[in-house]
Each structure stands twice: as C-alpha cells, then as structure tokens.
Specification:
The chain is of the alpha+beta class. It is built from four helices and six strands, in the order αβββααβββα. The strands form two sheets. The chain has a three-stranded antiparallel sheet. The protein is globular. The model is unreliable at 2-26 (pLDDT under 50).
Length: 121
C-alpha cells in the first residue's frame, strides 16, 4: 500500500469515528425557559403545540420567521424536537421517538421528564 493510499484510508477512518460524536453533540437537550414551555434550538412549544409567539420570545424573531409558521396544512400539535423527543398535545405525552410498530401503536417509550416539563403531568 502506498503512503498516499494509507494516509487517505487513515483520514477516512478517523472521520468515520468522529462523526457519531459530532452528531451526538448536535442533539442537545431541550430547554424549559418557563413552566409549561419546552424549546429546542429551532422552536418552542407549550401544551397547545408549537408556538410562534413563544419561539419569538425565547429564541428570537429569526427563529420565529421559520416557514413552518406560514404553512397552513401543518399540524402543530404533534411535533418532534431536534433531539428526537416526540410530543403529542392530544395525548398530552412526550415519547422517546415518533415511530409506529407493526401493531400501529407508537413504539417510543414515554418520556416522563419531557411530559412533565411540557404538560405538568
């Protein structure tokens, strides 16, 4: 193996081992800046769903200018935060993920931490 090929292979291997760590750092915890409010780095929500007003208040007008708020056919009562936590206003629950199993039921375990922060339950 020549030096160039070996160097490239080592660089590729190093990049592949670093990527999961970098990705994990991006999925930061959600923050609760006030009782009943939960935010990630893009949006804020309360027990009514994703809120443009709360997003503007806690994340700024730039975040609140998100196209999401101008889309009329989007259901803002079911949402997934950047860290993968899924919340459903109708169920008044937050779960570890948004996926369904073969039985048609949600597979994500209930997140008591985020359910309590968002819904107070």
């Amino acid at each position: 193996m020549n030096k160039l090929h070996l160097s490239f292979s080592l660089s590729l291997l190093l990049a592949m081992t670093v990527m999961p760590t970098a990705h994990a750092r991006q999925a930061a915890d959600n923050k609760s800046p006030a009782p009943g409010v939960l935010c990630d780095r893009y949006v804020c929500a309360n027990d009514q769903g994703i809120s443009r007003e709360l997003t503007a208040k806690y994340l700024g007008e730039k975040a609140a200018s998100n196209k999401l708020f101008s889309m009329q056919s989007v259901d803002l009562t079911e949402f997934t935060f950047a860290n993968g936590i899924f919340c459903d206003v109708k169920e008044r629950l937050c779960r570890e993920d948004r996926y369904y199993g073969a039985d048609g039921q949600r597979t994500g375990g209930i997140s008591s931490k985020y359910t309590k922060l968002l819904f107070g339950e």
